Amino acid sequence: MDMHQLTRELQIHNDSKIVLLVADGLGGLPQQPGGLTELETARTPNLDRLAELGISGGSIPVKPGISPGSGPGHLGLFGYDPLHYLIGRGALEATGIGFHLTDQDVAIRCNFCTLDASGKITDRRAGRIPTEQSAPLAMRLRDITLPGAEVFVEPVKEHRFVVVLRGNDLGGNVKDTDPQKTGVPLLDPVPMSPESERTAELAAEFARQGAMLLADQEKANAFSMRGFSAKPELPPYQEVYGLRAAAIAVYPMYKGLAKLVGMDIVGEAKSLEEQIQVVRDCWDDYDFFFVHFKYTDSTGEDGDFDAKVQRIEEFDAAIPSVMELKPAVTIVTGDHSTPSFLKAHSWHAVPTLIVADACRTDACTKFGETESLRGGLGQFEAKYLMLLALANAGRLNKYGA
Questions:
Q1: Any idea what DSSP says for residue 23?
Q2: What is the dihedral of CA 300, 345, 339, 32, to 10 degrees?
């Protein structure tokens, strides 16, 4: 039986509240063998207190050894098998900014980047160019025309923007042009299926014209194209879990993913403090609250160990405000690990804890990678986290006679 068919049959409706706190890229590694990770280095008295009250473990975003993107990482946390429901980053970004995708669309998430005189990448994110500088450049790219297709270009945030190609015979199975490293040229968009050949041709022409329009720029003089994707179809949250779900996020991509699974995007918070206030304001209207904190990931990708430690401490400081609301179930985790040692997403299990009146507590007294290895949850695939949340909230009936 499909897991969602099971939850449809077993779901119970009650007044319990579930809060899922996601520190993006939370897991890390020590800078040297035998050292402490970012999470273990940070002062986290509030998270440590939750570890004492709850049960800890490590969630595996996809499968052991697989380093996930943010899309698959969050799909797993939301209880959708990321190997079955594959959503490209382009669709997530487009939906997150409110763009309505049609069945004729392929969305592409783009990053402004910096090339040197020889055409090699020196900065994959154009110095994280601020939005007020990147948005006019994205809108400049609206001058591009492609044969037999409509083109939509929308600014997103900082170095990111979205391109949507609309037309007949477009497939979303095209390789990224970002080589994921510096010192090399951008890649060509390569189709991975016959139905995506025209998409790749249009993308190559878009990149060619775009390079000409950006030639006068010092930082954002080119862009990579990532996450080619057609419009996805997923069963909605309220149907499969019986939950009225709210998403409180700052970055558009995470709003997009939440919207695609049927969550309501609530508030216009710009900081973690504002996000918690949004939770307070809509507490009576929803059963499930997804709160996303981005900066533990971006500091890890920048390779800045100390900055990631500071961001974890900022995340920890928000915990009491959440617990004041007395949720029936509180979950703290990440969508994947982003060790600053690697400057990239990794395959490592993510420290995860659940606090609920009905949870079976373990001996963990701190929240961190080493402690999670001896936690009562063990290591489990993230797609089962929602089952644990529902069970601890008293929202699942007994299975079978």
A1: E
A2: -140
Asked if 199 and 166 count as a contact pair (C-beta separation under 8 A), the reply is no
What value, to the nearest 5°, has the Cα angle with vertex 342 and ends 341 and 347?
120
Give the separation between CA 41 and CA 46, rounded to whole angstroms. 14
Q: Cα angle at 339 between 336 and 344, to 5 degrees? A: 75
Residue from 250, 332, 237 nearest 286 by CA: 237
3-86+234-392 placed in CATH 3.40.720.10? yes
The three-point CA angle 286-80-379 to 5° equals: 100
Please list the pLDDT of the chain residue by residue as tens digits (401 residues): 789 999 999 999 999 999 999 999 999 999 999 999 999 999 999 999 999 999 999 999 999 999 999 889 999 999 999 999 888 889 888 988 889 899 999 999 999 999 999 999 999 999 999 999 999 999 999 999 999 999 999 999 899 999 999 999 899 999 999 999 999 999 999 999 999 999 999 999 999 999 999 999 999 999 999 999 998 889 999 999 999 999 999 988 899 889 989 999 999 999 999 999 999 999 999 999 999 999 999 999 999 999 999 999 999 999 999 999 999 999 999 999 999 999 999 999 999 999 999 999 999 999 999 999 999 999 999 999 999 999 999 999 999 98
**Tokens found for residue 28:** 């890390």
Domain with CATH 3.40.720.10 in the chain: 3-86+234-392
Q: pTM here?
A: 0.81
